[in-house]
Design brief:
Pfam families: RT_RNaseH, rve, RVT_1. By secondary structure, this protein is of the alpha+beta class.
Length: 578
Amino acid sequence: MPFGLCSAPSTFQRLMDMGLAGLKWTDCLVYMNDVVIFGKDVKEHLGRLGKVLSCFRKANLKLKMEKCAFGYERVRMLGHVVSKAGIEPDPEHCKAIEMFPGRNLNANEKAKRKWVKSFVGFCSFYRKFVPNFTQVAFPLTVMEDKGVFRWGQPERKGFAELKAALVKAAQLAHSDYSKNFEVHPDACDYGIEAVLMQVRNGHPMPTCFVSRVLNKSERNYTITEKECLAIVWAVKKFRPYIWGTKIVVKTDHHALCWLMTKKELSGRLERWSLLLQEKGRGRAGGGHPSRCHSLGYTVLGGWSRPQVKQWRWIKQVMIKNGSTQYGNFMLKEGLLYLRTIRFGQEFNRLCVPPEHRKKKGLMEITQVGEPFESIGIDVLGPFPRSRNGNTIIVVAVDYLTKWVEARALPDATARQIAKFFVEVVVVRHGFPRELTSDQGKCFTAEVTREVLALLRLSDRMTVPYHQQANGLVERQNKTLAIMLVMYVDESHEDWDEFLGFVTFAYNTARQESTNHTPFMMVYGREAVIPWDLLAATGPSLPKLVGAEDLMKAMIELREDVKDQLAMVQQRQKTQYDA
């Protein structure tokens, strides 16, 4: 890759992410050409090192030994020093801050302000290591605002204290998510700050320091509101650390102890109290009155909800019909109002004339082979997270029999998709010859490509933003979603528990295109359903003499289905090409 390209860093980062797919964040950390492999002990470290080197070998990437270091207990990376004890600023950078040049008295006022802003920004890179950073840097921060530039005793003192604070920056401990966190917020007249701590062996260990300056309106808050703002802001800043864990908030403002229990709050304190009471898992027992449907309706004048919704989607519809990639047609903010004349004129002026548009091609018919010879696969979702932690459904459909296989998964990673394809499709129905999918990341990832290469499958990717190319699976996704809606509860947390029953119902229902059920096309008989057991009867089975007759009947059945599908496809092609 040549030097100087503006897209070179992102392209190289993409290469590293693809080469180390599946190992990033679990076995190693990657930033550009820096790869840090970590482990709890030597054995684990060597195992992960072997995985990373194997990935580099598969990706045909070479390493220069002069730039490699192995078996280190302390690592410098991105201006930090990481060790077993914790993380701290790079001493070389701290030394550069300590040697930061003083102010040039002969410079103009604009250069002086730029010098102060540069110094404060330089120090802010390590502000998470400095307690009370806002308080120490406040005299210099105020100088960034417009006004008379002064360099008196408070400014010189702040400059010296900020240097000393960076040189003596605290070491931050690694987070231990098996233990509880403590949040220590505080506020003053001009700023708020907080410390995230964990108690280990009876000693409080800081994990992160945060602080900021209050804006003009926030400085007018009462002291109680400022202290509450410090709590709310600290919880938001520490959310990646404390989400899903128990925390203890320790504040020196006793009036906030009743924040979560007081019945009547007003203004911003009430909003902050609700913000801190984030919804958890749904309760099974209480809250029945709040879930009762309203017995009456209030009719308001003006626009109805369907009309408002229709107006909101006009812009997206016009853009989609004008150009899939937007092209030269862009609707400006504020253009779409009730002034439809202006909207129509702008659209006609910017839209590409019909005679200059590229004509659509003719419909290509997919040739149907034997059962499970051609498979279509797609991902449906995301859905609300179920009780089992699932959010998406991966669906596979056979082009001949219309047999559907579906499984609920927690996420659409390439490893999960490849595991579904092998365990559900290949193991149950054999190796297909062709697999049709869209260009989702889970289908184009290295793991999926390797599985398809090992199985020697012909993988056919559809055109982006063109769902009709994989229409069979897309139509099946719509059918599954409609069927699932009939059974889920109000919390929408049990949809994956009905997926197997819905799939069975579909596979035992007669298909209009084949005039047979998928179950009949696969097994040569109809499925026994609960109604047959209650009626003490069974499905009509053909009375055959032997295996040869059964095979002959199945061949004839499938040949008739192929002819039926060919007629349906030809009719669809005629309508599409017209």
